[in-house]
Structure to design on (238 residues):
């Protein structure tokens, strides 16, 4: 049985004062029948881990190497050292903004596993790929190139269509069902598959009722407890 996971990605948002939101999320997570994760900026991981013992704390990216001359980067082991238990790899904002390739993402996912973190491997197609009918092929080839070799249930996949991230335009249940079934055929029954892209309290119930949706990766709506808690509650009702 795959336990649902509701993960909030704060991206480049969040200062010490925002930990008050995490305190409120932690109160709900303490009683929750689903896993709850928050990916704060790296500057807050240590404090977030101390402030929210019922919330899984995750990094937003890591380097593939354990240590070395990589100014500005962070290794998976460093994230683990300050309290992270998961790490997002291959988010579309990094694939685009930092030109990360599938091979880069696979190295990061492997580094996460080696450090004892659960990697959340993100994949997703552009609007162009979808309008030309190449979306499934594109996502499956991204997935096959990005998954660590010999992956198992510790790896989590997040399907995030680029056109749905931060746009308010969520994929339809039929679109999500089609893609999650295709991803399932690659990853097997043990791996959790999250959907991400404009998930809100209002659309979460329909999303969680869709086959092969094991949770959500939430951006904007994870920044406040008031918006994030209804998504956790919808996952618990599903
Ligand atoms: P969004 O972001 O919920 O703001 O669309 C999702 C994500 O980037 O993970």
């Amino acid at each position: 049985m795959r336990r649902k996971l509701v993960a909030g990605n704060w991206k480049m948002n969040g200062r010490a004062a925002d930990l008050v939101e995490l305190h409120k999320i932690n109160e709900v997570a303490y009683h929750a029948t689903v896993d709850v994760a928050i990916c704060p900026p790296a500057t807050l991981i240590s404090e977030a881990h101390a402030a929210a013992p019922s919330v899984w704390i995750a990094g937003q990216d890591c380097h593939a190497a354990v240590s070395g001359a990589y100014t500005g980067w962070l290794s998976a082991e460093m994230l683990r050292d300050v309290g992270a238990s998961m790490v997002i790899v291959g988010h579309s904002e990094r694939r685009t903004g930092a030109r990360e390739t599938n091979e880069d993402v696979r190295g990061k996912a492997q580094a996460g596993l080696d450090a004892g973190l659960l990697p959340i491997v993100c994949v997703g197609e552009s609007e162009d790929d979808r309008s030309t009918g190449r979306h499934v092929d594109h996502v499956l080839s991204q997935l096959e190139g990005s998954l660590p070799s010999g992956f198992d249930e510790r790896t989590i996949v997040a399907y995030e269509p680029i056109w749905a991230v931060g746009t308010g335009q969520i994929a339809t249940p039929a679109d999500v069902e089609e893609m999650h079934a295709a991803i399932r055929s690659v990853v097997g029954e043990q791996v959790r598959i999250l959907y991400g892209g404009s998930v809100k309290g209002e659309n979460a119930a329909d999303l969680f009722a869709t086959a092969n949706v094991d949770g959500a990766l939430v951006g904007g709506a994870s920044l406040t407890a008031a918006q994030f808690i209804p998504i956790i509650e919808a996952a618990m009702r599903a």
About this structure: Strands lie at 5-9, 35-39, 56-59, 86-89, 118-123, 156-159, 192-196, 215-218.
